Please model this.
Amino acid sequence: MLPGVFKAKKKNGEIYYRSSITYLNKHISLGSYKTEEEAHETYMLAKDILNNTDKWNIDNYPASCLLSFHKWVVLINVRDNGIYFRNPIYLKPRYFLYYIDADTALKLDIDDLFYYAKYKISKRGGHLYTSEYGMQVNFLSRYGIKNYAISGRDYIFINGDHMDFRYSNIEIVNRYYGVAKFLKNDKAFYQAKINVNGDYIIGRYNSEEEAAIAYNKASDILKDKGFKKNYPKNYIEGIDEITYAAIYQRLRISKKLREIIV
Model:
């Protein structure tokens, strides 16, 4: 066999060829190919990448390349930083880049390095997920961002870079379901909304916690009146059961919504 190529057989008996390379005593798989020649060509490219720092970098990935972009990043990182990761990670001095594709690189805190070295980030339908123990987990949930959250309304990137997911760069504006923060005459208020065949305003409240409890109250009343929609509940941190019950009882919801409920 040509260098870097290993012959293999599928369950149905079909022959294919695997390409791999050893670097810093680490065996790195490069991919599977239909022909021995393609597998060898990939091996030779990988060898060239590892030996030519000036010639190859992440940004000059060829338009037509037998080596996947994922493996491209893996090779350049192990060459430049001396550490192998199976996921497309490139280390920087105080953070790292995780490449979703050639055009999308997430900037992440170094504290999360070993988590993302283990769990792959995938993109589907415009959303990012990590795969943990066979389950897909919303990437944003790691930052306390809800599934329904909208960038610029419920959370913001402080430096304006929507690919910079370092914790210091993310500010959560709205932490609770159905709650949005507004400013009027430089004073903040919190509006609670709920969907009943369209969005209805529950009310406006002085605190985020009050608005979140008002949302819970409205969803409880809707369920009691026979509405089948599965409304998520807000969990309010730092409030005991007695305080929660007192706030729950005194909060009022909008007349328009009460009329729909009745």
Q: What stands out?
A: The first strand starts at residue 5 and ends at 9. Residues 208-224 form the longest helix (17 residues). The two ends are 78 Å apart (CA to CA).
